[in-house]
Each structure stands twice: as structure tokens, then as C-alpha cells.
Amino acid sequence: MIITHDLNEFLRERGHLDMIDVSFVPTMGALHEGHLALVKKAKKIAKHCIVSVFVNPLQFDQKEDFLRYPKLEKEDVHLLEQNQVDIVWFPKVEDIYPRGFDTRIEIGGPALQWEGALRKGHFSGVATVVYRLFSLVKPKFACFGEKDWQQIQVIHRMVKDLLLPVTLVNVPIVREKDGLAKSSRNRFLTSEERSRAPFLYKILQEAYLKLKSGGNISLILSNAIEALEKKEFKVDYFCAVDGNSLQKITKWNDNARLIAAVKLGSVRLLDNI
Ligand SMILES: Nc1ncnc2c1ncn2[C@@H]1O[C@H](COP(=O)(O)OP(=O)(O)OP(=O)(O)O)[C@@H](O)[C@H]1O
Ligand SMILES: CC(C)(CO)[C@@H](O)C(=O)[O-]
Ligand code: BAL
């Protein structure tokens, strides 16, 4: 496995794979089984797999969130080595945003609500970094996790609208045994919060089953929110939406998605079903 922090070295090594199928997994590091599911999928669909590890400053609206984002380079390299990745690239900030860089990608539609409304500039930061990474990596395939459902829809919109020559592949959510969606930020839960955290998925599942069997959407959602608040989750949103446009729906259907973001202590949990 090639491990590089140097853009020129990365491009040289990438050049050696140029004529061959390459899949790409962009990450922010502190890798766990969720990321590894993306890597495994990437390895299945293409001959070579490239992983990037870059904590993108542009997508953080809270400085403290950026500063405390876990950095575990040695452990990440070890996990990727075990999974036989071809290249792991740790870009430097100046490689992604060189002096004078002054472009932002702004996406409408699926980026406007939920995470987009609550985290100012977040999806513009995500889209801009993903576009830059795609330009440098030139992958045939790129894998993204369904844990960040809205992010996937935003990136699909960008790829479609800007005619990017990449095929996006979605990977289902990987969960802990108790149902909590794996996430790098889970490590910041206290042990008491960690034991309460799976309640979010439990409530999502219960609401989903009721919605699927034709129950009243607004009643089911308000009961779910009430149950979460009773357990002292601060609910940012818990909503039934169209799975692609992320617009609220009033009637459950086959393309619907239940999405949620809640705060538990200092951690924001994202999940969907
Ligand atoms: N539990 C999971 N199941 C499937 N995919 C996941 C999971 N966790 C993260 N991913 C995916 O891995 C990619 C990189 O995500 P990222 O590095 O931000 O990790 P993360 O665990 O989501 O961290 P955090 O949400 O705390 O920022 C994204 O496509 C994300 O959706
Ligand atoms: C796609 C991504 C790597 C862009 O920084 C990030 O948003 C993430 O880890 O989901
Ligand atoms: N995993 C999504 C990226 C973020 O929360 O910043």
C-alpha cells in the first residue's frame, strides 16, 4: 500500500493506475467498520482502491467541532493496510485549497433543508472538497455511506448537474450491535450517553414500521419526537422526506426516507431508515 502526504507523489502513483479501473473512498479519518464497508465495496467493483483522509475545514460551521475532530493516522493506515487499499492519500490543506483558491460549489434542491439549513456552508464545503478530490483522483467509482443520506443526495445532484464522469455507489449503514450507527464522533459520548444513544434507532424503527403500515405521518412523527425528548435527546429534526429531493412528504411511499438528527450531550447523532 502506498501512503502519501505529498500531492506530486500521489499524482505520480495515481498515474501508474491510470488506465485501470479505480474506485475512491473519501473520508475524514478516524476509521471504523462503516468506512471499511465502503472500502470493501470499492474493492469489489474496481481493480484498484484509493482512500483519502482529509478533515475538510470548509465543511465545518463550528470551530470547536473542527478542532476536536479525531485524528488517528497510524490506526487508519493500519486498518487500510489490512484491507489492501492501493493508495491512501492524506492531502495537505494547501493541496486542496491552494493560495488564491476562491471557488465554491453551491447546490440547491436536496442541500437546502435539514443539515443544509442547520450547518451554514456545510454542503457547499462538502461539494467543493468532493469536486476537488474527484478532479485529482479521477475515479471511475466513488463510494459514500448511507449514514449521511442527505450528503449522498447532494453529491448525486452535483455529479448529475456538472456531468462529472464518475459513478456513485451507496453503501448501507453499518451499526453497532445495539443499533447505533457507527460514527467517528461517537467516541465523544460519555458512557451514560453511549448507553442511551441506541434509543434513536429504536424510535426510527418503530416509526418506520408504523409509517409503512399506513399510519398518520404527523402523529407518528410527533410521538417519536416526544419519546426522544423525554429521554433528553435534543431533536434537531425527525422527519419523513422524499429520498432524493429531501422534501417533506405527507404520505409514506416506496421512495420515502425517515431522517433524524439529535443532540446527545456534546455529540450530534445522524441516522435514517
Ligand atoms: N456507519 C456508517 N455506515 C456506512 N457508511 C458510513 C458510516 N459512517 C460513516 N460512513 C461513511 O464514510 C464516509 C466518510 O465519513 P466520515 O469520515 O465523515 O465518517 P463518520 O463516521 O461519518 O464521521 P462523522 O459523522 O463523525 O463525521 C462517508 O461517506 C460516510 O457516509
Ligand atoms: C465526503 C467527505 C469525506 C467530504 O469531506 C465527508 O463529508 C464525509 O466524511 O462524509
Ligand atoms: N460524515 C459527514 C460529514 C460531517 O458530518 O461533517
Q: Measured on Cα atoms, how large is the radius of gyration?
A: 19 Å
CATH class of the largest domain: Alpha Beta
State the major sheet: 6 strands, parallel
CATH architecture of the largest domain: 3-Layer(aba) Sandwich
CATH topology of the largest domain: Rossmann fold
The unreliable regions are none
Which ligands are bound? adenosine-5'-triphosphate, pantoate, beta-alanine
**DSSP helix fraction:** 40-55%
According to DSSP, the number of beta strands is 9
- Main structural class: alpha/beta
Mean of the pLDDT scores?
Answer: 97
Terminal CA distance: 35 Å
- In the residues, how many domains can be counted? 2
Strand content: 15-25%
What's the helix count? Answer: 11
Order of helices and strands: EHEHEHHEHHHEHEHHHEEE
CATH superfamily of the largest domain: HUPs
Shape: globular
Q: Which strand order spans the largest sheet, edge to edge or round the barrel?
A: 1-4-3-2-5-6
